[in-house]
Amino acid sequence: MRTLDDLDVDGRRVLVRVDFNVPLKDGAVADDTRIRAALPTLNELRERGAALILVSHLGRPKDREPELSMRPVGERLSELLGVPVQQASGVVGDGVTQMAHQLSPGEVLLLENVRYEPGETKNDAVLAAGLAALADVYVNDAFGAAHRAHASTEGVAQRLPHAAGRLLEREVTTLNGILKNPAKPLVAVVGGAKVTDKVAVIDRFLEVADTILIGGAMCFPFFKAQGHAVGDSLCEEEGIEPAREALAKAAQTGARLELPTDLVLGDRFAADAQRKELDGVDVPAGWMGLDVGAKTANRYAEEIAKAGTVFWNGPMGAFELEPFAAGTRAVAEAVAAAPGTTVVGGGDSAAALQQFGLADQVTHLSTGGGASLELLEGKRLPGVEALS
């Protein structure tokens, strides 16, 4: 993979694909984590004499909804960079091209939401060519979109000298390192709602990890495969057979696949639900499992503390509801305190770390939940492959 070390950018216009898909509230950026993550690449390019043209998507617009405009993002980026950020009213076209070609070294232009263009998700050749016409060089620093073969992630890379930005480079290097040369023991903590979303990554960790700790609603297909009652818990029926197969593979590979041994139940999914602790995993009718229990949380924390490398993706329960946040909090605190390498795979796990004030206490916090899982599964990421 080509990196910034392989590019001459002095006096050149650089099209940078960033991942500024950030939450907005009342017309302003509500969480600027992804914008901050891009700053090392942007600052380095500016210091090396490049003029920057930034392109990103924001949400999933069906048309040109004004509430999904990049303007609030540009305003926040300007504050973080300490320089004015010019805002284009479109993605491509004569007016945008003129703005791009008038940039001086160190100046920054932010294009409008690239998904305003229907050709983006279709990897349209005309759109890719239009983006390429804006710049001399292409840099992809949007790891969160690297698993998509879109015009701004794959198509444009075929048309310009290209390289990975520092964020994308670090993501790929760190995640590949987990699979190829991790400090042992390697402990994978996998939670969330659906086994089918993560069955491939569980399967991969059964081959390389020493221990896999399962939490969240995805534990219920495992329980059901073992013949336990799950009550009214969220239990993905399509996940039962993959869970059964994972249990069988664990017995063959020797990897320890650990499941909760106690649960916290609620009579409904709500912060004011009636709460009950269950010493065991057979959930009675009328109740649903909403968190792992204290015994499980402590056992998982002990495993994490002994690990040379920890990978965590997915909460242990409904951490957004305070009565059912203890299990996820215990795992988050254990990961933050672990002496080894700690990698957190974006998504809800990253949100949990932010909620508990621990985001800066892990070795690597991935900006791409889906992309990180696909890379760990062994899939080829089009946005990364295009940088070969």
SSE arrangement:
Blueprint: E1 13-17, E2 24-25, E3 28-29, H1 33-47, E4 51-55, H2 71-81, E5 85-87, H3 94-101, E6 108-110, H4 125-132, E7 137-140, H5 151-155, E8 162-164, H6 166-180, E9 186-190, H7 195-208, E10 211-214, H8 219-225, H9 240-253, E11 256-258, E12 263-266, E13 275-278, E14 288-292, H10 294-305, E15 309-313, H11 326-337, E16 341-344, H12 347-355, E17 364-365, H13 369-377, H14 382-385
Parallel strand pairs: 1-4, 1-7, 4-6, 5-6, 7-8, 9-10, 9-15, 10-11, 15-16, 16-17
Antiparallel strand pairs: 2-3, 12-13, 12-14
Helix pairs in contact: 1-2, 7-9, 7-13, 8-9, 10-11
General form: elongated
The largest β sheet comes out as: 6 strands, parallel
Give the mean pLDDT. Answer: 95
Strand adjacency order, main sheet: 5-6-4-1-7-8
* Structure summary, number of beta strands: 17
